[in-house]
Amino acid sequence: MAKNTRIALFVGFDFICFNASFLLAYLIVCADGNSTAETTAGYFAIYPAGFLILIVVKLLAMFVCSVYKILFEYAGIRDFQRVALSLVACTLASVTVAVFLGIGAALLPFVILLSLVFDVAFVLVVRVLYVRQNMVRMDDDDPESQSLRRRYAPKRKNAGRVMIVGKDRAAADLIAEMQATEGCGRTPAIIIDDDKTHTGDILLGVEVAAGYNEIRLRARRQSIDEIIIAKPDASKRQLAILLRECVKTRCKISMLPLARKREGAEELPQAALADLCKPTIADLLGRDRPRVDHREIGDQLKGRVVLVTGGAGVFGSELCRRIIMYKPRRLVALDVDEDGLAMLAAELEGYRTAETEFHTVIASVRDQIMMRRALGAFRPHIIFHAAEIKQIPLAQINPRETFLTNVFGLKIVSDLADEYAAEKFILCSTVRAAEPLSVAAQCKRMAELYVAEKNAKSQTAYSSVRFSNLIEGRGNVITLFEKQLSKGAPLTVTDKDIVRRFISAEEAALLTVLAGAFAAGGEIFELGPGEAIGVRDLAEAVIRLAGKIPYEEADIVMTQLRPGERLFEEMDAREPEESAKVAERIWIVDDKESAKLPHWSQLWAFDLDRIDDMAVMELLRLIFPTYKTKTAGNPTRGELIEDE
Fold first, then answer.
1. pLDDT beyond 50 at 345
2. Hey, which end of the chain has fewer CB within 10 Å, N or C?
3. Alpha helices in 102-223 (DSSP H)
């Protein structure tokens, strides 16, 4: 019910109750042998200049006591006690006014006493009926469970002060449990919600303040120890906005996991303190799941044979999870990581049906014999090539291995895709390939060029999909920070100005599968743009989410850019054109720059048995003339150092 409607409803009922109380009290005390009609007539004779004024005074006193701010949808015993005490204050106020105005009939002791008794009875009955009509929770399946109001108990002293973000039922559940549980160690102090219409309202004895921009101010002024985000129905975007405000405080942060209403259920399940969990960086950077046409993806994948190279990696395994939901006839995950494949097979075992098979193959994309056997045995219709070496610093000091995996491995698989008549070949690339300044990025750019060349000569449709850093990446900066923090070591940031963009593996995989459905051959799709965040801010957030204070309980130190690193992501310098958009968060990149690159057909003239790091570096210099292997005067910011 809207706030103004609720207040008007209670004021109207209270006006009727106060009238009834004075009338009944007057009739009982002043009857004196007269008939009820005569006594009633006497009452109304002095009503306009007497009792009506006192009723208005009582209503004003109720406003002063904030009775109309109480959210009775979640009321407990203490709220009803507050109403009763407010009625006593209202009676004292009316008596005071009656003395000044000389309203003798209202100053009779028994009229005062009886009107107070009737006020308490009538007003509380109205509230009880309202609460019963607007019951927050009635658990028919568990008759022994206590309602929110019956579980309300006095607050425990000396408990940590808690700020609740959210004022709905989940917040009421948590507050009631805190107040009822002696050993929980929490005392609800303030509620913050973005609904300004409820500013100053009271939920289970706790004041409601409006505006998420109040979080830092209120946390400091009220000495808050912990912030609990009680919004399980929030979107990932809303949760991320809230967390970015909360991490700016010095408070411990907890949250209820995001949940969706069960089909047929009118509301979310009951919230409890035991459900609270620590937010993660994925929550801080969270984005709402993109809206996609699942029928379009299903038409491409259902009943087909799909091969995913690099299937045991973070992205490859997530790609397998997305694909198998569309019921392909056969899904094949190929990787050299047998542990990862075993874990993925165990996870996807439940998806095996008579219509859908799942297979794993232990093989390297650099092994042409094994790849020929795999493609010859399964004859895939669609291939997602996610096998790669992607760690920038490691790739920078191991150019040969990066080249053999990211370029020659790609060549082997893409050539076999043409040989075995695959319908589509999707290369999983990186946004760094747009301006390739590192070995890993340049190898990925060469892979893009090769699949574009293959597309022009083959019946197979070859396309590339670029995306930014994965939040869940096993070797990314987030994982590094978490490990450093767990060991008590300082968090290392390579530069105070460095910025990175992140995308979740789930979103990247879903959009990649959708881009694959759109692929007609020759496109370079770009997913994004991903959430941009300064790495130093990211380090501070990791510390705060762990319940510690940056630079006091956990230090952050600045080092130097590692080989191949740059301050900003490539997509930060450009915005995709709306005309290039093919779906939500998917664009087609204009690849005119490829025509400016030198001819690189000599690439395949290498003797793989004799190729070394320096040969790879020379080739990269030939294809990408702007590439430098050494930065004068600052070798730690450069790449591979050559002997003079």
1. yes
2. C
3. 109-133, 169-180, 215-221
SS3 272: coil
Dihedrals φ, ψ of 159, to 5°? -95, 160
- Cα–Cα distance list, 392 to 147, 385, 398, 476, 563 (Å): 56, 19, 10, 10, 7
| 118-127, 443-452, 587-596: which is most confident | 443-452
By three-state DSSP, how is residue 23 classified? helix
pLDDT tens, residue by residue, 161-171: 899 998 888 88
535-544 pLDDT, tens digit each: 888 888 888 8
- Residue 546: pLDDT band (50, 70, 90) is confident
- CB burial readout 23-54, b (16+ within 10 A) else e: bbbbbebeeeeeeeeebeebbeeebeebbbbb
Sheet containing 357-362: order of strands: 357-362, 330-335, 305-309, 382-385, 424-430, 461-467, 524-527, 586-588, 581-583
The answer to whether the peptide bond before residue 143 is cis (omega within 30 degrees of 0) is no
pLDDT tens digit sequence for 239-267: 888 888 888 888 889 999 887 655 445 56
- Tally DSSP H helices, then E strands, for the chain: 21, 20
- Report which of 313, 307, 314 is spatially closest to residue 328, judged by C-alpha positions: 307
Element housing 341 (H / E): helix 338-347
| Ramachandran area for residue 332 (φ above 0: left; ψ -120 to 50: alpha; else beta) | beta
Please tell me the distance from the alpha carbon of residue 49 to that of residue 389, in angstroms, as a whole number: 89
User: Which pLDDT score, from 0 to 100, does residue 293 have?
Assistant: 82
Apex 527 CA angle, 348 and 506, nearest 5: 25
Q: May I ask the CATH class of domain 294-594+602-636?
A: alpha beta
Q: Where in the chain is the domain with CATH 3.40.50.720?
A: 160-260+268-279, 294-594+602-636
